[in-house]
Amino acid sequence: METPVSDPIVIASATRPPSDGQLGELAVVAGGAAALRKEMDRESQTPLVTLGERIGRTVRYTRAEISAFARMSFDDNPLHHDVQAARQAGFGEVIAAGQQTSSIMMGLVASHFARPAGEVMRELLCLNFNFAYKQPVFAEQDVDIGWKVTAIETNRKLGGVLVHLDGVARVPPDTVAVIGRGTVLLRTAAPASSVIGPPQSQFGTEALDVAE
Fold it and tell me: Fewer CB within 10 A of the terminal residue: the chain, N end or C end?
């Protein structure tokens, strides 16, 4: 006994136009794709942040600033305090602690996104930063710091957008000293007039869990 073979499913062809039901299914699929594209567009360009947005600044540390920062961060490495020790180690000059440059890099991101985006007031929470230290940063040396927004994700649970950034700090002659990568959460700040009682942040402990 032969087993009947089902006809192949054909949505439309030159000889068989789509039925009303198939047209409805196609409309649903097309609508879903359009909604997805619209969502992706919103994620890459929002009032809070723009894909490709850049942050930059040039800084310079004196010997005194390097030593003071190292002491504040409980770093007694003589390479940050003693020129002779640095020269004996082959550096020729005191070097900044790695955390000095990375803290400035994080501070630039926080300061940038804490400012309004046009007329939109923003509220920021730093979620994660990672750094790799490639070359020393010496006293009295220009340090060119730059960040770029590389991805934006809408997070409905947290009511904001996750902003992913890549950063770098360079020293002459265009040498990479520090590489950074970070993620911050941005929200539209609540109007000050709507806050009753002591000032509080919108961010609660749930902000630590960024999973949808």
Answer: N
For residue 66, what pLDDT is reported? 97
pLDDT band at 48; cut points 50, 70, 90: confident
Contact 178, 168 (CB under 8 A): yes
Q: From CA 195, how far away is CA 42, in angstroms rounded?
A: 28
Q: Are 160 and 120 in contact (CB under 8 A)?
A: no
Q: What is the DSSP letter of 82?
A: -
Q: Which two tokens stand for residue 47?
A: 């009032």
Which segments of 30-113 are extended strands (E)? Answer: 54-60
Q: Which of 83, 178, 79, 187 is nearest to 134 (CA)?
A: 178
31's tokens: 């609508």
Q: Mutual orientation of helices 63-72 and 98-114 as an angle, nearest 10°?
A: 90
**Rounded-to-integer distance, Cα 144 and Cα 56, Å:** 7
- Amino acid identity for residue 101 in this structure: T
Q: Mean pLDDT, the chain, as a whole number? A: 81
